[in-house]
Design goal:
176 residues, alpha+beta, Alpha-Beta Plaits, 5-stranded antiparallel sheet, 6 helices, 5 strands, large ribosomal subunit rRNA binding, Ribosomal_uL10_bac_type, Ribosomal_uL10_bac, rRNA-binding
Length: 176
């Protein structure tokens, strides 16, 4: 079914706005995946704040102009689904990687982060990034470690004094 010019402009504007606010994008070939499976994928994507877009390649190429994802132009060949991560750079990579494990027909074409296009073999590099919550937890642990060590060190001083006094007391009792 043909899309009118106004519809095309709306699609381009929507994809451009999404790409402008995205932290990363993952492209995949979805041929052979059932509509039921795609619906399940979309539900998981909404839960993880990943925006999935299936757009004609020529419209997608126009939409990504002026964004840091112009580099994906060469990957936009054949049926392509674009997964934009909005909060966590690795969310789309994890989502599509897990989906590709379940569905053999689903093939990851590539990914882009910070204006750099990477091949499908680099999906683990992005998927293994910690989530925001995990990163904050690691930061809290690193920040807390020196304080904990200082508290233990300060606690050792009275303990050592007590041991020294006890040793002197034991020495005097033995001598007496």
């Amino acid at each position: 079914m043909a899309i009118r010019l106004e519809g095309k402009k709306a699609i381009v504007a929507e994809v451009n706005e999404t790409a402008g606010g995205a932290l990363s994008v993952v492209m995949a070939d979805y041929r052979g995946v059932t509509s039921g499976d795609m619906t399940a994928l979309r539900a998981k994507a909404r839960a993880e704040n990943v925006i999935l877009k299936v757009v004609r390649n020529n419209l997608a190429k126009i939409a990504i102009r002026g964004t840091e994802y112009e580099c994906i132009d060469e990957v936009l060949v054949g049926p392509t689904i674009l997964a934009f991560s909005m909060e966590d750079p690795g969310a789309a990579a994890r989502l599509l990687k897990d989906f590709a494990k379940e569905k053999e027909a689903f093939e990851i074409k590539g990914l882009a982060v910070g204006g750099e296009l990477m091949g499908a073999d680099q999906i683990d590099r992005l998927a293994k990034l910690p989530t925001r919550h995990e990163a904050l937890t690691m930061l809290a642990i690193v920040t807390q470690a020196p304080i904990t060590k200082l508290a233990r060190t300060l606690n050792e001083v009275p303990t050592k004094v007590t041991r020294a006094v006890a040793a002197v007391r034991d020495q005097k009792q033995e001598a007496a």
